[in-house]
From TrEMBL:
It is found in: Vacuole lumen. Residues 416-602 form the Glycosyl hydrolase family 32 C-terminal domain. Residues 54-85 form the Beta-fructofuranosidase N-terminal domain. This is beta-fructofuranosidase. Residues 94-413 form the Glycosyl hydrolase family 32 N-terminal domain. The lineage of its organism: Eukaryota, Viridiplantae, Streptophyta, Embryophyta, Tracheophyta. The gene is VacInv2a.
Length: 618
């Protein structure tokens, strides 16, 4: 189905994103707000005087891993969530277990016709703990079948948790799985596992090496700062290398390098692959090559001319995944960033939203590099326990070097997600005037694949050097923006999530553009973490502004300019659910008209269920 925009049937609305109250009303509102704030502050002081303050530590920190809960929400008034609301929040085509807690993706690989995903899993509860490896397989990275647990904490060297790890596939087809375990004495060590039968396409049974652990914290590294080994790569000398995260002197994030010839014995190299002061503990490190022609993906061991290397780290201090592109010297095992001002942890982010612990693997079946990432909940543990599940994985993304900018990676949903597309609707050159909202009548809006392109009118502006990035959200106006989409919004716009571009005047008459998501009005519930996410996105002279948005109930993934900047968001509306959810265009710029062209597909649900062992599906 293809539709065209009719301004008589879809009249623009005055944007409720704007503050249209009178100066007298605003002054009165400000005075009233100050009085209320003072009364609340007084009540808080009295209450704290009566009750001693106790700081609640996030779950997981005491055990030596990154935070796995949101204790800041404990002081919020609990919302009266219904079962219908909880049911709506569960995704329809993103991977998540049938129930309980999930976090980091582990050891993804392709083997004998099946994609394998292992993941951190609590088989007993919807909160973090009792960490084992869940296991699922897929033919196409979209439809998944749950398998029995792959690795469980049953030895002294992993009894307190089978933590993150990576797979390495050898030339003869052997599969090496290295993972972090927490010992009975709370020491992080690295362990080796391998399939009991490598000819089994499902890899149902795994054996742990009798000589585990194969690596222990070296001198100078604390027992809880040594985790998450990467996929190994083969050096020019025929020796395998791998790296893992740690920190030095509490503030310097580092990636250690080990050599091995048999994956049982390891030699720690002097020095580090790389270190960045001020970034703290690095975990879930990833390291892989990219071709500078930007057209093909590379096996992890690829070296030579025309190749750069990506170093990525998940920062324990900030819970953000950062990456940088640079040059790797396989002789010295040192990596140097192309731009030291955008080094790991201080520059580009893998995803500017709610996203962590990402991991890539080389898909030898389709010759592509595929990226997984963990999206956790931003509600309370109480809510998660009531609904019985927590967390999901992003749609797998392909990763390529952006040869147009020479500074970015391009992330894009794997092509298989397009198999879920149902009916489509087309809108051509919809005019969105400053301060207006335009409804897009497409029916159901909770499972969508949206391609949108925006063109702004030429304007000679006297404003220069506008300050800010995403500002205070979509209400923060500038000459050229913000403009974009309102997803998962109700008809009255009392709940909405803007996804938008915010071009700002810079020196020399140029524009610096930010790509953003504003969650602050996504839900009327107070016990939900809501913020404005975003980052800078290069928009080249020959490009219009374009975005792709995947909407799947409570998860929204947004890709700007072909995937140069990506934002993942979790949203928990109370009214904009089921048939009440709507989609709008908006333009909150002060000075320019915007024309938007869109193609929108409704998406089907993926089949994600237990493996039917009673049938021969292998």
């Amino acid at each position: 189905m293809e539709a065209s925009y009719d301004p008589e049937q879809n009249p623009p609305l005055h944007a409720p994103l704007l503050d249209r109250s009178s100066p007298r009303t605003r002054r009165f509102a400000a005075i009233f707000a100050c009085l209320v704030s003072l009364l609340l502050l007084l009540a808080l002081i009295i209450n704290q005087a009566q009750q001693p303050f106790e700081k609640v530590q996030p779950r997981g920190v005491a055990e030596g891993v990154s935070a796995k809960s949101n204790p800041s929400l404990l002081n919020q008034v609990p919302f009266n969530w219904t079962n219908a609301m909880f049911s709506w929040q569960r995704s329809a085509y993103h991977f998540q277990p049938q129930k309980n807690w999930m976090n980091d993706p582990n050891g993804p690989l392709y083997h004998k016709g099946w994609y394998h995903l292992f993941y951190q899993y609590n088989p007993y509860s919807a909160i973090w703990g009792n960490i084992t490896w869940g296991h699922a397989v897929s033919r196409d990275l979209i439809h998944w079948l749950y398998l029995p647990l792959a690795l469980v904490p049953d030895h002294w060297y992993d009894i307190k948790g089978v933590w993150t790890g990576s797979a390495t596939i050898l030339a003869d087809g052997q599969i090496i799985m290295l993972y972090t375990g927490e010992t009975n004495e709370s020491v992080q060590v690295q362990n080796l596992a391998y399939p009991a039968n490598v000819s089994d396409p499902l890899l149902l049974h795994w054996l742990k090496y009798p000589g585990n652990p194969v690596m222990v914290p070296p001198p100078g590294v604390k027992p809880d700062d040594f985790r998450d080994p990467t996929t190994a790569w083969l050096g020019p000398d025929g020796t395998w290398r791998l790296t893992m995260g740690s920190k030095f002197d509490t503030t310097i994030g580092i990636s250690l390098v080990y050599h091995t010839t048999n994956f049982r014995d390891y030699e720690l190299l002097d020095g580090v692959l790389h270190a960045v002061p001020g970034t703290g503990m690095w975990e879930c490190v990833d390291f892989y090559p990219v071709a500078i022609n930007g057209s093909v993906a590379l096996d992890t061991s690829s070296l030579g001319p025309g190749i750069k290397h990506v170093l990525k780290a998940s920062l324990d201090n900030t819970k953000v995944d950062h990456y940088a592109i640079g040059t790797y010297d396989p002789i010295t095992d040192k990596w140097t960033p192309d731009n030291p001002e955008e080094d790991v942890g201080i520059g580009l982010k893998v995803d500017y939203g709610r996203y962590y612990a990402s991991k890539t693997f080389f898909d030898q079946h389709k010759q592509r590099r595929v990226l997984w990432g963990w999206i956790n909940e931003t509600d309370t543990e109480t809510a998660d326990l009531k609904k019985g599940w927590a967390s999901l994985q992003t749609i797998p993304r392909t990763v390529l070097y952006d040869n147009k900018t020479g500074t970015n990676l391009l992330q894009w949903p794997v092509e298989e997600v397009e198999s879920l597309r149902l009916n489509s609707t087309m809108f051509k050159e919809v005019l969105v005037e400053p301060g207006s909202v335009v409804p897009l009548d497409i029916g159901t809006t909770t499972q969508l694949d949206i391609l949108a392109e925006f063109e702004i009118e030429p304007l000679i502006s006297s404003t220069t050097n506008e300050i800010g990035n995403c500002g205070d959200g979509a209400v923060d106006r500038s000459t050229y923006g913000p403009f974009g989409l309102l997803v998962i919004a109700d008809a009255s716009l009392s709940e909405l999530t803007p996804i938008y571009f915010r071009p700002l005047n810079a020196s020399g008459g140029t524009l610096k553009t930010y790509f953003c998501t504003d969650e602050t009005r996504s839900s009327k519930a107070s016990d939900v973490f809501k913020q404005v996410y975003g980052g800078k996105v290069p928009v080249l002279d020959d490009e219009n502004y374009n975005m792709r948005v995947l909407v799947d109930h409570s998860i929204v993934e947004s890709f700007a300019q072909g995937g140069r900047t990506v934002i993942s968001s979790r949203i928990y509306p109370t009214e904009a659910i089921y048939g009440a959810a709507r989609l709008f265009l908006f333009n909150n710029a002060t000075g320019v008209n915007v024309r938007a062209t869109l193609k929108i597909w409704e998406l089907n649900s993926a089949f994600i269920r237990p493996f039917p062992f009673e049938r021969d599906c292998v």
